[in-house]
Amino acid sequence: MAKSRFEYVRQFESHETLLPETYIVVRIDGKKFHEFSKHYNFEKPNDERALKLMNASAKNVVLKYKNDVVLAFGESDEYSFILKKDTSLFKRRRDKLSSLFVSLFTANYVALWSKFFPGTALDYKHLPFFDSRCVCYPNLSTIKDYLCWRYVDTHINNLYNTVFWQLIIKCGLTPQESEQKLCGTLSSDKQEILFTDCGINYNDEPNMFKKGSLVTNKGEVCHIDVVKQIDVLFEGF
Ligand code: ATP
Ligand code: ATP
Ligand code: MG
Ligand code: MG
Ligand code: MG
Ligand code: MG
Ligand code: MG
């Protein structure tokens, strides 16, 4: 094809290739989902439909790129897709990986919305959209720590949110009072408050809430103790 005299402007484009032989994590996170969840009346602290919609969207992304993905892990409005260290997907270009993963995820989230929220139409003034970043991890030990970090974060956030909301729902505390009561408490204190004040045993909470969701590269969704299983999860990768 003949080139126009304008063609030279391509030279202004730059492409970052991610370091070879490193595990790539593409992490996406919902934009202002605090507000989004309020607008669509998500149940607090965990709306099961919303989590299942996140999982179904992630599963479709994983299946599309199953040869390049080790696994994916999600909690709340975020998902991390872990790619094999030798992947050559999109020639390891940062922009391509980040933008194609997040737009494929968002497209699935919108397309699957009505399956998980039947009767609630998406309002064009409150559409779901996500940010995205790529991070490289240089070895097995750091990528395992990355996954454990997200898993432990799920636990810390969920325990806090569960007690915070149950104190409001069951004990009639205001959000300010609930926050004050939890200020400076340890994990064990929170479990104790939940049990004695709200009559709830944290152990009986659903695994999806406590442990987050893991999608294997075969597209299976499970809710397991990631820290305990970390070596098994990366066997062969
Ligand atoms: P940002 O745009 O900076 O990410 P954000 O409002 O999305 O802002 P996050 O730190 O990402 O803030 O937190 C996501 C928020 O979305 C949670 O704090 C919670 O209020 C809400 N949320 C996400 N998923 C659910 C769910 N399944 N059930 C109930 N609330 C949810
Ligand atoms: P890549 O993933 O590399 O971008 P691509 O198939 O999207 O591959 P492009 O160079 O972006 O390649 O070209 C987009 C193609 O999509 C066009 O060549 C055309 O075949 C098709 N296409 C896009 N918009 C329209 C349209 N409005 N009507 C008909 N065909 C279209
Ligand atoms: Mg954020
Ligand atoms: Mg968010
Ligand atoms: Mg988030
Ligand atoms: Mg193109
Ligand atoms: Mg194109």
UniProtKB/TrEMBL annotation:
Among the GO molecular function terms of this UniProt record, one is: GTP binding
**The EC number(s) this enzyme carries:** 2.7.7.79
Q: Where is the Thg1 C-terminal domain?
A: 142-218
Tell me a GO biological process for this protein: tRNA modification
Q: What keywords appear on the UniProt entry?
A: GTP-binding, Magnesium, Membrane, Metal-binding, Nucleotide-binding, Nucleotidyltransferase, Transferase, Transmembrane, Transmembrane helix, tRNA processing
Cofactor entry: Mg(2+)
Q: Return the InterPro entries for the record.
A: Thg1_C_dom (IPR025845), tRNAHis_GuaTrfase_cat (IPR024956), tRNAHis_GuaTrfase_Thg1 (IPR007537), tRNAHis_GuaTrfase_Thg1_sf (IPR038469)
Catalytic activity of the protein? a 5'-end ribonucleotide-tRNA(His) + GTP + ATP + H2O = a 5'-end phospho-guanosine-ribonucleotide-tRNA(His) + AMP + 2 diphosphate + H(+)
List membrane-spanning regions.
97-116
- Which residues are listed for Mg(2+) 1 binding in this entry? 29-30, 77
Spell out the coiled coil positions from the record. none
Q: What does this protein do?
A: Adds a GMP to the 5'-end of tRNA(His) after transcription and RNase P cleavage.
Entry's family note:
Belongs to the tRNA(His) guanylyltransferase family.
User: What is this protein's record name?
Assistant: tRNA(His) guanylyltransferase
